[in-house]
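INPUT
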Amino acid sequence: MANFHPFVVPFVLGTIGLFIICGYKYVRWIKQFDRKQQKLIKKNMFSTRIFPAIKEMFNECLLHLRITKKNWRLGYMHRSIAFGWFLLIVVGAIESRIGIKGPFHFWCAIFYRFFHHNPPINGTEVFFTQLMDLLLLYVLSGIFLAFVKKIHSRILGMKRTTKHTVMDTTVKVALWSIFPLRLLSESVTARLYANGGFLTQTLGDLFSRPVAQALELPLWSLYSLALCIFFLMLPFTRYMHIFTEVFLIYFRKLGLRDSVKMTGYTKFELSACSRCGMCIDRCPLYNTLDINDVQSVYLLRNLRNLEHHQDILAAGKNCLMCHQCAEDCPVDIDLMSIRRISRDKGDTDMADNYRYLDPVKGFNAIGRVAYFGGCMTQLTPTISESMKAIFEAAGVKYWHLDGDRAICCGRPLMQQGFNKQAADLRRKVSELISSCNATALITSCPICYNTFKHEYHLPIPVYHHTEYIDMLIHSGKLSVNKSDTTFTYHDPCDLGRGTGIYEQPREVLKAIGQLKQISAEKENSVCCGMNLGNTVLSLDQQTKLRDKSLQILTEPNPDVVVTACPMCKKAFKHGTEANVKDIAEVVASSVRNVE
Amino acid sequence: MANFGFTIKKTRSFNLSQADLRKVNKLLEEVPSYRLCIGCGGCTATCSARQFTDFDIRKVHNTFRRGQYDKLAEELRKCMLCGKCTLVCPRGVNLRSLIINMRQLLTPSNETF
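OUTPUT
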């Protein structure tokens, strides 16, 4: 057979195996989509949403723009391997199509130099030869950086890399050896037939002819074998992310989201995780408490392998749900939803709950705004008092929805995996809010705000009080005195990373005083440690987290540490000499009295 | 006879040495801070569910601790898990964790004992 040599067999088998295994897995997962997800796929499969999806696939799977934005060295590393290899395949395919004589097989593109011994003669061939060498060098630079990262991750800006399983490490060795082997085999062939480019020819000329002759076949065979090992093990290791991310981006653009239970979509997400470990770096549990086996990367791995049931439970439980990892994830996996799925309480969870809320009637609040303090605000009454003062100063008619009796929004239940109970509670609260006919809902608690915003479908607009106060000041309804008081502002997890409200509180604080910058703010704000998401941390551990957060906040020595969450306020209050206040309190104390 | 709102309580004596305390021991293992409980009732006083119904979390966990598990599962469903009890507890008992663990221990399919 022309253009065939037995050494290509491992590669061919590997490729066929790869496609069969991946195909089988993908079909199985797609069958596991729930009804809502299937409907969305059918509806949007061929819509124009495919174009932004293709754009994102190109940007993220190949160019890794999201990582580059966070850390350019790491971005370069990933891009050179992914995009470089992709180009090697594409350009190699074009080159071999042009150059190969006789029957063309798909392996000819991979082992082109072996099957095409003529030195490049015309311009096109010289161009391709040099370009392929350049691309190979590009990929090799990435592999080199990956190697450096393995030895000393800080050079690449990562405090810690993931602890990998034996399987993952084996495949990594296979992947890392592919490109040096390719370089060596092409160089040796270049020595014998003078068909190399600037890199392979130079390197090849270092060998003596007999050595090159002796090494040629073994090297090409090793190259083929390395490819085979990588391809066959890929579907069972983290490298499954290479193909899965493409599908995940497509499904996400079609509008698919995680359900409360494990679905096929979640399976795609689990496999799209490349275990890069970016979720570890800024996890407060790792940074402050040195807990290093519960981070999203490990949870996802355990869930995917469906092993260590106890580990899944333990890792799933021990998380603050502060959204930091979800913010950092370069694949943009919905880590918080997966965390909740891992906490699903199954049988413990029963339908038809909270009947006792049925007789609760909403006040007829037509023309008024409804103020919902939330459970935690009941424990920090100064916040609700300040809000009332602000409403009165601005001439806004309000009704305090949970003034005498607090109703939970359902988020704590949802976070702990009591999904049916949470849904029942949400329905009751939703009915109560709708029945009062208020014009808007204002809440003081970011936890409630996040839930109202994302889980409820209320007929009226929902504002967090920072947003609302900002609106009042901007519209001129509320006038405040500007003083020299200095503030630092703590972004609560659920308000900042949870709902993306960063600017409004800062605008408000700038209107009444001087806002000082702190070292970790906005997306990087450090959780106060009291987040409702965690139920297993001890008080001692929570205190350590709080102190860490406070240390950042009190560093510039502000007059007042301001936060916008009753929970954070409660956490900080007892941990520092500094003055801790909610944003509503500082605004209320600087309201200008209109005579 | 005139009803003055006072009754004689039925005797609630029971034999602690005959109680099945395996679930209790499991609970104490899962939530070690529960050993610190002094039964002050701060949790009940602040309870959100308590503001609507006669749910009494202190009663629930006290009863549980004595190994009397009857009807507790039904009672615990009233809890909204808001976590105020944990915040007000003067002894730092992790009540949310306690409630979640009690619920799971009382679920029939999770019966390991």
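end of record. The radius of gyration of chain A is 29 Å.
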